[in-house]
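Practice problem 4.
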């Protein structure tokens, strides 16, 4: 929901700016384009952040898992 609110604020600010100049066609075009672009950039950024976080978490889990920890310890089966 935060993404849509930010995109709406950007679109309304752009529309008001172009409307104050008197260019209503530009206000409509630029505000709608910026609305879509803001949502797209935010979704792409959040998916990249989520992917990086998941990768980091799986790497951390792999380093601390019992099986990978056991690889550093060698058990001498022939010891009497």
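Answer key:
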């Amino acid at each position: 929901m935060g993404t849509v609110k930010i995109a709406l604020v950007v679109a309304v600010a752009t529309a008001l700016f172009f409307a104050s100049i008197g260019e209503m066609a530009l206000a409509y075009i630029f505000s709608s384009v910026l609305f879509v672009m803001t949502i797209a950039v935010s979704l792409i950024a959040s998916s990249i952040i989520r992917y990086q976080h998941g990768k980091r978490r799986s790497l951390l889990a792999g380093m601390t898992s019992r099986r990978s920890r056991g690889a550093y310890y060698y058990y001498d089966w022939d010891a009497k």
